[in-house]
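User: Some background: our group keeps a shared notebook of sequences we're curious about, and every so often someone picks one and asks for a predicted structure to add to the entry. Today it's my turn. The entry only has the sequence so far, pasted here. Could you supply the structure so I can complete it?
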Amino acid sequence: MLGLLAAAALAAAPAIVPRTFRVDLFHTGSATEERFAVDRLVLEPLPFPGRPDRAVDESNLGKYLFEVRDLATNRLLYSRGYSSIYGEWETTAEARRAFRTFSESLRFPAPAAPVQVVVKKRGERNLFREVWSAVVDPRDEFVDDGLPPSPGPVVEIQKSGPPEEKLDLLLVGDGYAAEERPKFEADARRLVAALFAHEPFRSRKADFNVWGLCPPAAEKGISRPLTGLHRRTRVGATYDAFGSERYVLTFENRSLRDVAEFAPYDALVIVANADTYGGGGIFNLYATVAADSRWSDYIFVHELGHSLAALADEYFTSDTAYLPTEGRPEPWEPNATADPKAAKWSDLVTPGVALPTAWPKDAFAKRAHEFQDRRKKIRAENRPEAEMDALFLAQQKEETALLSKVPDAGKVGAFEGANYEAAGYYRPQVDCVMFTRDPVPFCAVCRRALGRIIDLYAAPAR
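Assistant: Of course. Here's the predicted structure to add to the notebook entry:
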C-alpha cells in the first residue's frame, strides 16, 4: 500500500521544467561560402517556456533547422525551423562582393548530459542538409550562467497560464527614455489589442501570454543611418537594414538576448520608439515595429505573420534589397507557390475557382508603381512623415476599391504576384494582411498557418 501511495504521489508531482540553454553563434560568409562558430554558451535564468510534449518541430518551415540530439544515444531531444538575418543577407548584391558576420542564437531546454547541436539548411528540392554541428556539454565550466544588467521590471500584459502551456509573446521596447516607460506600456497594450482583433489570434487569445520589457535609453529614438541619425541603444534597433529605408532590424543579437532572457518568450517583438514607417520580421527570430507610425497596428500584425508563422510577403511592387530568384523554385513558405494548379493549399481552394485565378494585375501594378515613385520622392527629400501617411491612405483607398470588386474576391485560388515577383509566383487570395495595407483579414491559408504554429506552443482552442 505504501508503495502504491508513493507512486501515486510521485505521479501527481509537477514535472521539473529545465532552464533555458542558449548557444550564441557567429554566422559568417558570403553568397558562396558559409561558416558557423560558437560565441557563447549561456544558461538563462528562467525555465524553458516551450511545451515539453511538443519539443520536435514538424512544421517544415524555415530556411534553416536546428536539432539537439543526445550525444550518447543520438535521440532527438528538440528541433526548430528558423530563418536568419544572414539567410536574407546572402541573397543581396553585397553578399556577392563581401563577407559579413552576424550573431545568432539557438535556444532549447537545458540538457542533463552532453548533446550534439546540428544546423541544417535547405538545398535542392527544399531538402535540409547538415551545414554545421558541435558538441555542447551543459557542465562545461565556460557555460555562462551570470545575470546581465536588468532591463527593468517585466510588464505583464496578458497572462493566460503557465509559460510551458502557452505561446509566450515578449515585446521589448527600444529607444524609450526612462521616463517614457509608461508610453512603452501603452504602446505595447495598443499593439497587442490590434493583434487580437485579427483571426486566428482573436479566437486563440487564451493560448497566449504577453510580456513586456523596456530597458531605458539615454535618449529617445533609434538609428536612421541614411539620414545621419545614430543612436546607441541596448537593443540596437535601426532603420535602413540592407539599405532599405523602411526595414528595421537589430544587428546586436547578443545584447538583445541578454535583455530578453529576463522574461519567458517563444516569440519576440522589438517595439521601436519612432514614428517613421518601418518594421521587419524574420521567422523564429523577431518582428519589429515603429510604434508611433500611423500604420503601426498594421505593421505589427503583418510582421508577426513573418516571424511567427514564416508567412511570405505577397506584394511585388515594392523595392527590396534581395536579388531575383533564379528560376522559379517552389517556396517553402506556406502562402506562396510556383505551381498554381498544385498549390500547397489545394484543399482550401474554393470550388469552381479557376487556377490560376484572374484579377486586374496590370492595372494594380501600374498604380502601385506610381505610388512607389511618389514615396521615393518623399523619402529622398526627407519630407514630413504626414505626407507619407497621406500617400499611403490614398493608395489604400484605391486598392481596397479595386480589389474588393474582383469577381473572386474573398475566395481561395491562385492569384499571380507574390514573393516580390510579379510573375511566376502565386498567392492564395486577391487580398490579405500579407499583401496590402488594406483593412482586410489574413487569408484562409495564412490563418491556417498561424493556427498550426499556435498549436505547437499551446493547447488547441476548445
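Suggested note for the entry: Residues 361-380 form the longest helix (20 residues). The chain is about 25% helix and 25% strand.
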